[in-house]
Amino acid sequence: MDDVAKELGMSKKTIYQFVENKAELVKLTMEQYLAEERTQLEAILKTSKNSVDEMIQMVVYFFNQVREFNPSALNDLQKYYPETWAIYNEYRFDFMLRMLTKNMEDGIEQGLYRNDLNSNTIAKIYIGTIDVLINQQFFPIKKYVFIDTYKEYLNYHLRGIVSAKGLKYLEQHNLFKS
């Protein structure tokens, strides 16, 4: 809270006029972040040309969000703020799961994703893999830059689900070229 007060240029006493404790501040911050993210993702859903374009736009959005992301922040959230972690997980396994499953179903229908995929299973694998990417045993932050690891995973994921038609579309956008 000292760091927050310093960053905001106010006293901790002033901060505590608005929040009861640090856990409440973390919870309110997460709720605000997720509401903003939901708004951005819903805008992407409305403006995308097709399911691969939708995924590309989401990837670009997430790249911008996680550019300076420290994976230990989610580990700390899980460990020290279980109520906020539960909010985050509800968002992932409700909103994100529905959105990704629909993207998969639409992509299959559009002929851009392979037609032999189980959309719900693939969506859950996508969401669950984030837990692996932030796991310090697999990808310690001293050795791996999260954004680079995330790019590798997304390249792997998208190339695994697209059809030949979808691959052509994906490659036209040069999403993973350095």
What would your notes on this structure say?
It is elongated, with a radius of gyration of 18 Å. The protein has helices spanning 2-8, 12-15, 22-47, 51-66, 72-80, 82-109, 119-133, 146-161, 164-172. The mean pLDDT is 90. 73% of the residues lie in helices and 0% in strands. The chain has one domain: Tetracycline Repressor, domain 2, CATH 1.10.357.
Q: CATH class, anyone?
A: Mainly Alpha
The coarse overall form would be: elongated
Q: Find the CATH topology.
A: Tetracycline Repressor, domain 2
- Based on CA atoms alone, the radius of gyration comes out at 18 Å
The total count of strands amounts to: 0
Largest sheet: none
Short summary:
With 178 residues, this protein is an all-alpha fold. The chain is 73% helix and 0% strand.
List keywords for this structure.
178 residues, mainly alpha, Tetracycline Repressor, domain 2
Blueprint (SSEs and pairs):
Layout: H1 2-8, H2 12-15, H3 22-47, H4 51-66, H5 72-80, H6 82-109, H7 119-133, H8 146-161, H9 164-172
